[in-house]
Predict the structure.
Amino acid sequence: MKAVRFVLDYAKAHVIALALTVGSMVLLVGVQLLAPWIVKTMIATVTDPNAGAEALEEVSRLALLALGVYAVRGGLTFVRSYMAHVAGWSVVADVRSDIYQHLQRLSLRFYEDKQTGQLMSRTVNDSDLIEQLVAHAIPDVMVNLLMFIGVTLVLVSMNWQLALLSMLPIPLIVIAMRGFAKYVRPAFRVRQRELGDLNATLNDNLSGIREIKAFTREQVEAAKVRDHIIRYRDSLLHALRLMATFHPFVEFSSSLGTIVLIYFGGRLILNQTLPIEDLVAYFLYLEMLYQPVRVLSQAWEGVQQATAGVERVAELMDEQPDVVERPDAIELAGRAKGGIVLRDVAFRYTQGDMVLDGIDLDIAPGSVVALVGPTGVGKTTLAKLIPRFYDVCAGSITLDGIDLRDLTLKSLRQQISIVLQDVFLFHGTARENIAFGRPGATEKEIVEAAKIANAHEFITQLPEGYETVLGERGVKLSGGQRQRVAIARAVLKNAPVLILDEATSSVDTETELLIQQALERLMIGRTTVVIAHRLSTIRSADCIVVLKGSRIVEKGTHEELMARDGLYRHLNEVQTDDEPRWRAVRQLRQQQSQHAPAVV
């Protein structure tokens, strides 16, 4: 079974805890088998017509032995239970750690159609069931299987005919367990999937709570969440209904064995071919025979639940990244010069047309290259290819003459600082967010980076300055402030290659000018790729690359491109000719207002 093999691979690292668990289980079985023998011996002693004064001493010794047996059983039960939990939660911790590391290794393409809540559900909820498998289901199966074998041997040694008759219902139970497993495990997989959908919806809605309030979607979203809650409840009840049908059948089957023993055992007593103490002991052992069967049926439920969760975890761990390092990847030593060359580069996402096709571009070390063009032409995609967030579908990209695919991912990305259009800040302090790329940076370096990004002033005005917790995704800051913290983070990393994707898009004109001046100083000696819709910010670039329809249609300086009657000049004229455009918009709005129906 794939799920069991998956768990056992992790369980190998916790041999001591598992050995103590298994050892205590074996001893526990032996101790439990001893108890009915003591009762049998005690009954035989007190019912012996020839018993004398020594019988009282024998009974006393047996009573003390029984007390010791029960005390040892209690200690072994503790060891078995606690050490099973130690092994179980240790395995869960290892699995969760490996899941997170595996998720970090997966390419961005994997996350294109995945919900965060679903991934969290597999990492937390599904892996949680592994503890149930290691600490409960597997130990219960093992100890009760050993108990069943041990009791069977004792019963056969006492009276093999009665033993065979008493075990007649066992095949029925085994067949039922196999049959129910066929239906129960898929039912629990559905339950885990519905739980993942519920977590994903909750995560989306809590992350977008401002939008929900702004668009007054509270009732609609509450209904959606309730729908997922109901679906999860129904899937869970369906699985439990199957198990609830199974348990009474097991109880009924085990009762048949008792009826058989009463009938045939009673006949043997009447025929005086079976001592009464043997029949009493047989009853006690028979209860011990069917107790494992009942426990196994309950453990079977846990096995099916846990297996469903483990299979979902194993599926996630089987995902392979699209962007992988070659076995002989080169560790880029020292600081790169920053020369970047793209040759006949083509790229498409999982589906659809080529986003980039036939891209040839030479970026000299220390130069500033701006990527411009209409929305959706692949500017951001091109920038994401440089740190290998995605791999090219055709062609090649080199850094200092080395193909990016020949470099280790870590050494490549250490050479690049990035400020993305969609700024992400962690739930931590301003200091921690700025120093994210250089955790060992000094106070002076952090403050200097913040000053360059024009962030120092507003950070010092926060309640606790640089120690202020910014909240999830930097919720306590404005868009422009978040942008400047992200720029400070890139400044502090001090990498030779700088990628700015709309880095000044969320700031006002005055702040934009200050940041632009700081970035101009920062760009000196660094290879910089700038993506901008606001063309006034990239006029000083060494080379402006204009993209349209997945291809480069123009290249040159601002002056060279303005001298041509091309797309770049058209985009500039649209942005600089603001007053006539807004005057026309105002006139149109006034005309619509005059003809609009009155609001009652």
In short: The first strand starts at residue 340 and ends at 347. The radius of gyration is 36 Å.
